[in-house]
Design a protein that fits this description.
Layout (H helix, E strand, L loop, with lengths): L1 H8 L6 E5 L1 H4 L9 H13 L3 E5 L8 H6 L18 H15 L7 E5 L8 H9 L3 E3 L20 E4 L2 E4 L6 H4 L13 H7 L21 H16 L7 H12 L2 E5 L2 E5 L6 E4 L14 E7 L2 E6 L3 E5 L9 E5 L2 E8 L2 E7 L5 E5 L4 E5 L2 E2 L4 E3 L2 E5 L4 E9 L2
Parallel strand pairs: 1-2, 2-3, 3-4
Antiparallel strand pairs: 5-6, 7-8, 8-12, 9-11, 10-11, 13-16, 14-15, 15-21, 16-20, 17-18, 17-21, 19-20
């Protein structure tokens, strides 16, 4: 836990979601003599501003289906807690109550339940997380590498469990890449191959760095974690918390797209703010569209940046190119456009970086002062700010 705090949380100030197993940390759990140190360290970890809190259950069930059915085979069903009878309420709501009452700083709540063991919960278990006001994640088995470069090793977004939905982890943890922690202990670095396979020739997964803290107990494990993090931070990424990703997955399940006479209408909860448009459909007319703040062309299509959950996309092959947001490492909170002036409001989890396209004839301002680009490319202006949120960023253009 102390290594996690110093070598991960404080070294990499990016959004993280960290959980504990109550029975491994609590004074009435498996290790009462270590509990004071464990709880103190957990409080320091959860106090960090870049850390969101999750629970990893009370007893770490290994076989959710077996426990739910009351089957008692020879397999180890969960951590060996004397006298404990499995209870969904104790695993979910009980562990949340423990964390929020003893470990979390005032006002900071548990956001997620991270599935344990086989990560195959039944409908009742997933329903319990929703009733507790939690998002959930884990499961799936995306493990495509250079040795197995096949889409059959890439899982979907998740799985419906009755009326509820289990969100799968986009990529797998070090346990998979180290043969159940039998070695090689540097094996987690192969997740980079999975990131690359699911990025090109088309993006089908995000990057997520998912690990058990025992990875840090081996020098090779720590070095593999650093390689993975350094690779991720070299990419053009928009860092988000795991809960934000889970909300996007849930939004996708009910997302609505409808054809209009001039283009398309899109509507969701607002968690999803990016659409991928086949280039054959035409060019967005940003001045006639609504809540479309910009776009960027990729190898497999045109990525549209939305500023709201509901958007109107007008397509016109003859649309005049106007200044637009090409990319940003933050969410577009608001966007306004009028003749000769555009405004964006951005909000992210790390210092802001954004690029405007077709704006070389514009003055770009923030809070009434002119911004200077850190780099100029043909038709592109690149900006970097020390703050995590900014707005309105104005592009004032004379044409």
């Amino acid at each position: 836990g102390e290594v996690l705090l110093e070598r991960v949380v404080r070294r990499y100030p990016v959004p993280m979601t960290i959980s504990v197993i109550e029975s491994e940390v609590a004074p009435d759990g498996l290790y009462p003599t270590l509990s004071p140190l464990a709880e103190r360290t957990a409080r320091e970890v959860f106090k960090a501003p870049n850390v969101a809190i999750a629970t990893h259950s009370y007893s770490h069930p290994f076989y959710w289906g077996m426990l739910a059915r009351g089957e008692y085979g020879t397999e180890t069903r969960n951590l060996p807690l004397p006298g404990y009878e499995f209870s969904l309420a104790r695993e979910v709501q009980g562990s949340v109550q423990y964390i929020e009452s003893r470990l979390a700083p005032p006002g900071k709540k548990v956001q997620m339940f991270l599935w344990t063991g086989d990560c195959i919960p039944g409908r009742e278990a997933v329903d319990m997380t929703y009733r507790a006001g939690l998002l959930n994640m884990n499961g799936g088995d995306t493990t495509a590498t250079r040795a197995q470069p096949t889409l059959t090793r890439v899982e979907g977004l998740g799985l419906a469990r009755g009326a509820s939905y289990q969100v799968f982890a986009p990529n797998q943890n070090e346990n998979v890449y180290t043969n159940n922690w039998l070695g090689p202990y540097y094996g987690f670095e192969r997740v980079i191959e999975t990131y690359e396979f699911t990025e090109k020739p088309r993006r089908i997964k995000p990057i997520n760095v998912y690990f058990h803290t025992y990875l840090l107990t081996k020098r090779a494990g720590m070095q593999s974690f650093d390689r993975v993090m350094q690779y991720a931070l070299r990419q053009e990424i928009t860092p988000v918390h795991a809960a934000d990703y889970a909300r996007k997955v849930l939004d996708f399940q009910d997302y609505v797209i409808a054809r209009t006479p001039t283009g398309w209408r899109a509507r969701g909860t607002g968690a999803l703010r990016t659409l991928r448009l086949p280039p054959t459909l035409g060019t967005p007319d940003l001045m006639r569209s609504r809540a479309v703040a910009g776009y960027r062309d990729g190898a497999e299509g045109r990525y549209l940046h939305l500023s709201a959950g509901a958007a109107e996309l007008v397509l016109d092959p003859l649309a005049r190119r106007v200044p637009h947001l090409l990319s940003a490492n933050a969410r577009v909170i608001a966007y306004e456009a009028e003749a000769g002036r555009q405004r964006w409001r951005l909000e992210g989890e790390v210092p802001l970086e954004f690029t405007l396209s077709d704006a070389t004839a514009c003055r770009v301002r923030l809070d009434g002062r002119e911004l200077q680009p850190v780099r100029r490319d043909p038709q592109q202006l690149h900006y970097a700010l020390p703050r995590h949120a900014a707005g309105p960023i104005e592009a004032i253009c004379q044409r």
